[in-house]
């Protein structure tokens, strides 16, 4: 066991865990941040996506020792200052989720894409979201919501 000081959603939080403990389990079991979901455990489905220093990563395979001193943002921290992120607004407006299980990871990947490419093409969206699986098949609504979020972030009128 080792003690790590983590920066999670802008807060410094100490945890005492084994160095190879996956970040996902620290978030869920130690910090009670359960919005990030376990899907496959092998970084293939994207349900566990969080941001580390602004980059989307799969938390199910990221050992906690590699996260110390870095900035981690979970779905709980996506809304800055209590204001929903544009992807959260778009997801709600377009009724994207069906079962909703994969959506935290989808939202985190979409937010990271928009931070890098504010007005993404369909190809940009498909590429960035390809690592996030949705068993309900809401991919058409997800793509539409990413475009809607880009318009919201740019201050345009929603469609």
Structure keywords:
159 residues, alpha+beta, 5-stranded mixed sheet, 5 helices, globular
3D structure, described in words:
There is one protein chain. With 159 residues, the chain is of the alpha+beta class. It is 33% helix and 16% strand. The chain has a 5-stranded mixed β-sheet, sandwiched between helices. β3 (49-52) and β4 (55-58) form a beta hairpin. The protein starts with a strand and ends in a 6-residue tail after the last helix. The mean pLDDT is 96.
Largest beta-sheet characterization: 5 strands, mixed
| H-E order | EEHEEEHHHH
Q: What is the CA-based Rg, rounded?
A: 15 Å
- Low-pLDDT segments: none
User: Whole-Å distance between the termini?
Assistant: 52 Å
Question: Going across the major beta sheet, what is the strand order?
Answer: 2-1-5-3-4
Put simply, the count of helices is 5
How large a portion of the residues is in β-strands, by DSSP E? Answer: 15-25%
Shape: globular
Helix fraction?
Answer: 25-40%
Number of strands: 5
Helix/sheet category: alpha+beta
Compute the average pLDDT.
96
């Amino acid at each position: 066991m080792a003690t790590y000081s983590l920066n999670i959603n802008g807060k410094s939080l100490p945890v005492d865990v084994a160095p190879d403990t996956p970040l996902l389990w620290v978030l869920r079991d130690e910090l009670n941040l359960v919005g990030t979901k376990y899907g496959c455990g092998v970084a293939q489905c994207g349900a566990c996506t969080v941001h580390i220093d602004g980059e989307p990563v799969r938390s199910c395979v990221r050992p906690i020792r590699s996260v110390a001193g870095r900035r981690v943002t979970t779905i709980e921290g996506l809304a800055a200052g209590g204001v929903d992120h544009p992807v959260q607004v778009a997801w709600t407006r377009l009724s994207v989720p069906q079962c909703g299980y994969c959506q935290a990871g989808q939202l985190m990947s979409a937010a990271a894409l928009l931070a890098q490419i504010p007005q993404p093409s369909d190809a940009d969206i498909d590429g960035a979201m390809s690592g996030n699986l949705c068993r309900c098949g809401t991919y058409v609504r997800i793509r539409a919501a990413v475009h809607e979020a880009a318009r919201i972030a740019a201050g345009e009128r929603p469609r």
